[in-house]
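## tool: complex_structure
## caller: assistant
## args:
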Amino acid sequence: MTDHHIHLPPASTALLDDDDNPTAPTAVAPQSVGRPSSRFSKIVPVLVLLACGFFFLAPLLTLARHSLQNVPAFLLGRETLFKKWALTPVTLAFKDPAFWPALSLSLKLAAGTVLLTLGLLIPTAVWTHLRVPKARSLIEFVTVLPYMIPPIAMVAGIIIVKPHARWFLNSDLALIPFYVVLALPFTYRSIDAGLRAIDLRTLVDASRSLGAGWGATLWKVLLPNMRAAIISAAFLTAAVVIGEFTIADTLLKETLPRFQATFVGREPQAGYALNLLALLVTTLLFVLLSVLTRKRDVSRRPYVPPADLTAPSTSTGAHS
Amino acid sequence: MTTLDYISVRKTFPNTVALEGLDLDVQEGELITLLGPSGCGKTTALRIAAGFEFADSGAVLVGGSDITRTPAHKRNMGMVFQSYSLFPNLTVAQNVEFGLRTRKLPSDQRKRRVHEMMELVQLTSMANRYAHQLSGGQQQRVALARALAIQPQVLLLDEPLSALDAKVRTTLRDEIRRIQTEVGITTLFVTHDQEEALAISDRICVMSQGRVEQLGTPTAVYRNPSTAFVARFVGSMNEFEGQVGGGAEVAVLGRHIPVPNARAYGNGTPVRVLVRPEDLSIAAGGMPGTVTSVTFQGATTLVGVRLDVIDNLVSVDVGQGAADQLTIGDRVGVEISGINAVCEPV
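## result:
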C-alpha cells in the first residue's frame, strides 16, 4: 500500500476538502502477506493463550474457593462444588475496627504520594527535556536505583536517622517521601515517555508566543497533552503505595498491607478474602485507567459560528 | 503595523557564533526573507525576535521600542513553526482562540475574531476537528490563523512550508503572501529554499555564517549578486576561470565579458567568473562543445554542454524552438551573452 488516498473510506474522503493527504490518515491496515496459514500456526496461539490464562486464573480461583467457600478441600466433589459459597468473610474484614482507619491511611498516603511525585517530577522532566537533554540518561539511571536497591536498605537508613528525626517519623505522612522514591522507577519512565511523545519544544514555544507564561503553558498545554502519561504514573504510584509493607512495618504505621498481614493471622479465611478483593479492585482500577487514557475525537464544547457573522466577511481586523 | 529592527545583534552558542552583529530593518508591512544554508544563523535571528533566545549584545526594536530583554510571552509576536505546532488537545477553533484567552478577551470578541481568522484561512468547516484529523497544509493554515488572531505586531514564520509536499508548498506559499498583503503585517520569513524566497519576498536577506551577505529585492539578489556566495546560493551557476582585464571586464577564454564586481580586483588578477544558465546561449561561432544532456523544464530547456577548450561542463537555458532541434552528441557553440556575472579571486 503506497497511497492512503485509494484506501480512504468514502465518508472520510468526502470530509477532506483540502488538497493534500491527512497526516493521520484513516488508513486501512495492510493485509497480511507471506506464509499460508497452516492448522498448526492457528492452534499454537490458542494453546499459549489457554496456558497463560490457566497460569493466572488458577491461583485466583483457588484463592476464591479457599476464602469464600465453607467446604474443606478433602470434601470437594461434583456435588459440593457450588455449595456453601458466601461473602461473609469479606464483611468480617469490613467489620474489623482496624480496617477502615488502615484503608483510609493507605488512600491518604497514595493521594499524597501521587501529588508530591507529579509535582516534583513533571517540572523536573520538562526542564530536563528542554534545557539539559544530555542529563536525561543520568536522571533515568538515578530513577532506577530504588528498583535495584531493595527497600530493606532504605529501612536500614531510616533506622540510622531515626533518633534525629523522630518529630518527622512519628507522623503517619512520613511514609510519603519514601514512597515517592520507591515509585520513581515507574513514574519517571511514564512521564518521560509522555514528554517524548509530544513535540515539547515547539508546543512550549507556540504557547509562549501566544502570551502564556510558564505556569499557563504547563497547565493548559503540557498537562492536557500528557494526560495518559500522568494518569498511568498516578495509578502506578498508587499501586506501589497500597501494596508496600516493609517500610510501613518498620515505621509502625497502620497501613492496609500491615492490617492485612496481622488480620490474616487472626482470621485466615477472611484475610484471604480481603486479599482477593484487593486484587479485584486493582484490576478494576487498571481497566478504568485504560478507559480514561483513551483519546477522544469529539470536542465537548464544539465551535458554533457567531450568529451575526454567518454571512461571509472579508474583514481581518486592524493590526496595531 | 510596525517595524522590526536588529541593531548589531550578536549571539554565540558553545563552540559556534550564530550571529555576528546582525543589522536588519524590516519596514512596516514588509515581508523580508532570511535565506541561507542550515547553520547560517537565520533561525537564531528569528528566535531572538520571538524571545525564545536572547542576544548576547545588540538590540531588537519593535516599532522603535526596545524588546531585547522582554520574555517571549510578553512580546506581541505571531509565530508559525516548521513542525506542526497545533495543541493536540484542542480543536481548530480552540487553537485559534488560545492566544485570545491568554489575553483575557471577552467571549463575544473572541468568537468574532476566531470566526474572522477561520474565514481568512478558509477553514471554517474544519473548526471542530483536532490537529490529527487535518492534513499538513491545513495544520499550517490553522497555525497561521492562530498566530494572526492575537493581532501581533510582527509575524514570524520559521520554515513553515518545509514539512509539506511540493504542490501544497506552492499553494500555501501563495496563500501566505495573499494573507500577509491583505492584513498588511510586518513579516520575517525564514527559509533555506531560494525558490520560495524569490517568490514570496519584498526583500531577501541572504545569510552565511552569522553575517548578512546581501539584502535586496528578489530581482537584485538574483540579477546582481553582491558576492560569489549569494550567486551560488540563489539560482544555479556556471563557473569559468579568467583574468581581470581592466575596469569591469574579465577575460574568459579569449572573450571580454562585463563583470560589475571585477573593479574591486587589480588588473590581471586570476578570478573565477560565475554566469547563470540563462546568460549563456547556443550560437554559431561560440566556444565549441558537445551536447551531453537535454533536460526539458517546461518553459525552457536546460542543455548540458562539455566545452572542448576547458573540458568543462556548462548548462545553458535554451528557449523552446531551439531546444527541439538539439540531441545528445550534437556539436554546438556556446556564447556568454549576459552582463549579470559575478567574480571572485581564485
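## assistant note: The first helix of chain A runs from residue 4 to 7. Residues 48-86 of chain A form one domain. Handing back to user.
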